[in-house]
Design a protein that fits this description.
The complex is a heterodimer of chains A (316) and B (236). Chain A is α/β, with parallel strands linked by helices and 316 residues long. Helix content of chain A is 34%, strand content 28%. Chain A has two domains: 218 residues, 3-Layer(aba) Sandwich (Rossmann fold), CATH 3.40.50; 80 residues, Alpha-Beta Plaits, CATH 3.30.70. In chain A, the strands form three sheets. Chain A has a six-stranded mixed sheet with strand order 6-7-8-3-9-10, sandwiched between helices. With 236 residues, chain B is mostly helical. Chain B has one domain. Chains A and B meet through helix 1, strand 6 and helix 2 of A and helix 1 and helix 4 of B.
Chain lengths: 316, 236
Amino acid sequence: MTTQTLPAQTPTTTGVVELSTVSRWYGNVVAVNDITMSLHPGVTGLLGPNGAGKTTVLHMMAGFLSPSRGTVTIDGKPTWRNPAVYRDLGLVTERESVHGFLTARQFVTACAKMQKLPDPAGAAQRALELVEMTAAAERRIETFSKGMRQRTRVAAALVHEPRVLLLDEPFNGMDPRQRMHMMELLHRLGDNGHTILFSSHILEEVEQVAGLVQVIVAGRLAASGDYRKIRRLMTNRPHVFAVRSSDDRRLAVALIAEKSVAGIEIEPNGLAVRASDYGSFTRALPRIALDQGIRLRQVVPSDESLESVFSYLLEG
Amino acid sequence: MSTVAFITARGLFGRRRALLLLPLPVLLIGLALICRAYGVSPDMWGQAVIVGLGLVVVLPVVALIVGTGVLGSEVDDGTIVHILTKPLPRYEIILAKYAVAASVTAVVSAVPLFVTGALAGSIKLGGALAVAAVVGAFAYSALFLLFSLLSRRPVLVGLVYILVWEGLLGNFVSGTKNLAIGQYVITIADKIAPTEILQSTIGLTTAVVMSAIFIVAGTLAAINRLSSFSVAGETS
């Protein structure tokens, strides 16, 4: 049997992983609401605030949850109640539970055996080399640092060279060096034609690794596509600033003439300025204050939280 | 040995709770030895030690510790995911875990019961108790393995079964006798080696057939349950 290299990522209409109008609810709570997405070879980031439903989506892809409605397929085969999909699928969960009493090599080899690979020892060696864990392979996993554990789990998920690799918050709790290493690894796997999806609630993480981003907010697919486009949407969004100055009323009059200002409210302890464009407003404000001879005492973006960024995307 | 069975066995004996398996069998043999050493007639202590401690406590509790240890603790700490993300038919996973649970329980309970029976009566009584304990080990293990998949607190559910269902209701509601593994064990041992110590309340056929039903139905239900095993998300 020869392994063929995948043809240079020809965009196909059907992805390797397909979610079609997928919803999942727990009792009255809707965790995932009508999501349709397809994943293709390469690295895709699944971005969203905590509690948005990222883990639920990943678990449905990995066959650990049945969709309440819709279908989840890998290569056209449903993932729920179908253990055969694990031949083509690797999963790295957020929970870093491992059989700590095994050494890294024992653990990865056991995974290779359970995959019924013809040469479990060789496959384990290759997987450990890939994540650069050969030096510590004979140590028990419970003695490992968080990053080493994570790499061992990635090795275990990759030992059968699956076409699809799903990772839930793989960078959580990693130090910068480990993070960089993991990012390189995902890059390499994506370039080799694997279909990689990893979840994160941090935009910077996603844009360093993934060309494509799926943004989930409150169980819905809020945005999907190239990360640069999504990045632009985020910086050009309307924004509310709490501004305090030496003369709030005069500043309000001066600001209302500014193009990037959509509205101003005078409040007991300052101004609430609604800017239509984050970038132009933050450049214009100091200039206007200087011109008017007004001293700015406080400029606070009042909705800087990631959640508000995401909810803006959702509305847009 | 399958890889699943290997990991299961390593996990079972690697955890501290494996030490819980030691005191009960030791206590059982110890009590019997003390009674023998002081020349107390087996009529005085046989029933209390063999039935009251051995069959009512040691066998089901050992089965509970082991039966929930092979699967329940993996579900609990999330390591089950590493086994579930493999293209293994679910019956292979359940049967491997069941084989480990039942055989460990059988050895840990049948050996001390054999010794205690031999000290209290005869080798024949010891043998009868050992055979009955093996049957009981397989029936209890199937039940507790299933509990591990039905509840997030399998140990609690198992204790309720042992204490309330078998212990309390079994004494007052006669119908529950036919649905209590403890009664099958006593009956099987009694029919093999009839003594004053054991008093069976149901027929041998019922005991054997019902044990088989518990084993088969419990295992099938566990396989079915594992096939649609859902992993709850932590953040959502």
